[in-house]
Amino acid sequence: MAELLFQEDDYLNNLPNHPIFNNNNNNNNNKNTFSIINQNQLILSAPPELRLISLTNYKTQQTQQYKLLIPRPRSALPIKPITTLTANPSSRLLAICSTDQVSVLSLPRTEEHSDSSTQIECQTTKIGAEDDQDDRREPITKVLWHPWSHRASTLLILHSNGILLEFDVSRDTLNPTQTIDFNSPYSLLTESYHHHPSYSQAGIASTEPFECHPSLISSFQQVSLNSSSTKKSLIGLSKHPQRSSTPLGSPKASRSKPRLSRSIPPSAKNHRSTSQGTYGAADRASSTAVSLCFGTGAGDWGPLTLYAIMLNGDMYAICPYLPKNASVSFFLSE
After folding, report:
1. What is the 8-class DSSP label of residue 326?
2. Rounded to whole angstroms, how far apart are CA atoms 22 and 304?
3. Which of 17, 46, 101, 170 has the fewest C-beta atoms lying within 10 Å of its C-beta?
4. Burial 237-252 (b: 16+ CB within 10 A, else e)
5. Its pTM surpasses 0.85
6. Is cis: bond before 320, omega within 30 of 0?
């Protein structure tokens, strides 16, 4: 047993010396070079290359070779430097994200790791609509795969303006299946909203009629990390009037009733609560989305709870959040 542990430590200690980590650029402090470990393979972004080694092969053979992942078509890759690599739960798809674009690459099968070639061609697809005006794209702050999506193919893309887009990349890579606006949490996004200029900036196609109407999860509540803002209620349009929109943790949460408001398009200017029921933040930081994650756990509500955090520390929780094409765990269906 001790010998096995020693071999495991030796294998990990030698890994940083593998040639895959060699930097071909003159700048040794290139911040765009990083790697992720995805099950039994290590994937590294070393611009302009995507590199891969099989950790299983390396552990047994101590091989010093790595393979290059060649996207096909090459034009499907984001133009700007890659900021994030995220593998889906089945380890078959890799989301490649820059500051304003996302592409999905099909990872090679296990048997392709063992052949003698040094390059592997991988089908790659752009996600979202094309936008010729790059400077109008809203920055992307987080990319996340839903753990319970059918075929592990549901990708969530959070933009800094609070727009969350859900794509089922196995069916439609242009149009989102669901859309959430964290700055208007109860407002269903209508077709007129879909054609709004600010909406198109988030990367949603508007050239064809939107057949699948984006849906919004209505059990949307705010957890504020700012004590002064815990007294505020979120205002929005709810499909379930019996649900409360009072911030979580409030002693009156169980007795409060949600207030209704009309759906409004996004505005370039910050706006305050009004007598008409519209809601917006006076502080720009409270309307700037920073990150996104799912809860943890197995056989409980953890993977069905989606958390988002804003720049000022406000946190939002949506439960249950299911993708449009979901594969629900057997434990929850009992």
Report:
1. B
2. 40
3. 17
4. bbeeeeebbbbeebee
5. no
6. yes
Q: Domain residues of the chain, as ranges?
A: 7-127, 138-187+216-225+285-326
Model confidence at 145: pLDDT above 50: yes
3-state secondary structure of 231: coil
Q: How confident is the model at residue 135 (pLDDT cuts 50, 70, 90)?
A: low
Query: How far is Cα 199 from Cα 257, in angstroms, rounded to an integer?
Result: 30
Half-sphere exposure of 318 (CA within 13 A, CB side): 19
Report for 225-234, 281-290, 303-312: range of highest mean pLDDT: 303-312
Give the confidence band of 142 by pLDDT, cuts at 50, 70, 90. Answer: very high
| 331: enclosing H helix or E strand | helix 330-333
- C-alpha span between 94 and 32 (Å, rounded): 17
pLDDT in tens, 196-230: 454 455 544 443 333 333 334 333 334 433 434 43
Tokens of 234: 């979120």
